[in-house]
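Quarterly update from the structural biology core.
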Amino acid sequence: MMKIIFHSVFLFLFLVNSAYASNVSTIDPTVPASDSDLDSSVIRQNFQNAYNDITNIWADLAGVNFVYFNSTSHIGDYVIVSADAGSSSAPPNFIQMNCSSSCTLTVPPNSSAPIPVGAKISISQVGIGQLSVAEGPGVTINSSTTLRLFGQYSVAELRQVSANTWILSGDLQ
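Predicted structure, tokenized:
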């Protein structure tokens, strides 16, 4: 929240400075500015315009959900469910697999867990156990390397490109 307030104040000051600078006819300190350059009504209007811009930005941000993902933790094998992809009212899950020995994250067919095309699901191997990603029946997962995360604290992303086709990318072996 503080970051948004800081950016809003910065934007306000930038807009006021830009608006004021555009109304000043001279920058040369040896040439005196005319009274019209420092007209209080022009300065007041510049502040009002900047205030309106900030107010509009805040109005646009009203109702924005600043939570970018939900974090879920699993010990042992796990099968992705539809809720892991999020929805219009809920962000996608960040799946953390905390296994002490090898474990598997399975991507099920779209018929058993309907997930919209384009959905992204982030995964992480939090524990020391090797995390493998497995294809459910009829599912294809394409990857430039393997379907195993590199090691503890590795992060990868699954992106669905068609009903039963996914791409796995990230810190893989």
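Residues 2-23 form the longest helix (22 residues).
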